[in-house]
Write a structure and sequence with these properties.
By secondary structure, the protein is α+β, with helices and mostly antiparallel strands. 26% of the residues lie in helices and 26% in strands.
Amino acid sequence: MRRPQLQSTFARAVVPVAAGIGFFALLGLALWGVAALISGNGSQTTDRLTPTTQEMGSTAVLAGVIAKDGPIVLQDLVGNDKHIVLDHTGSDPATNWSMYLAHPADRAPSCQVTVVKHTQTFTDCDGRTITVDQLADVPQGVGPSLNNDGTLLTLDLTAK
């Protein structure tokens, strides 16, 4: 018995391409389904997908950068309204670390600040010059922490 074959040139050209597109569409849907199942479709972040701490590095190096260039603004990678400012005061790199939200305390989170290079001041969305202590506080539990010997700075980004 002879195997069935496509008779027209058009059919011989289109059917394999359509079958290939259909295969890759089904494969994409299967991979999407597996990813959705693994992530649990949850809106909460977990250590599996996003770490709750950010290791910043050497306290001596970071304190030197902040003393020279001003506080460090860490951009929010998920949204656009929770940028964080890391600041250090004093001469001892093992103490006096603080974190703030990168908007003035008297303004909405959409009023982001930018660091005035080589100073300890910021410019907000209204063009005002403000200092670190005029920034909004981070949620309770969010903040910097040092390892046991005081040389490595880690930011805990989980509100408790």
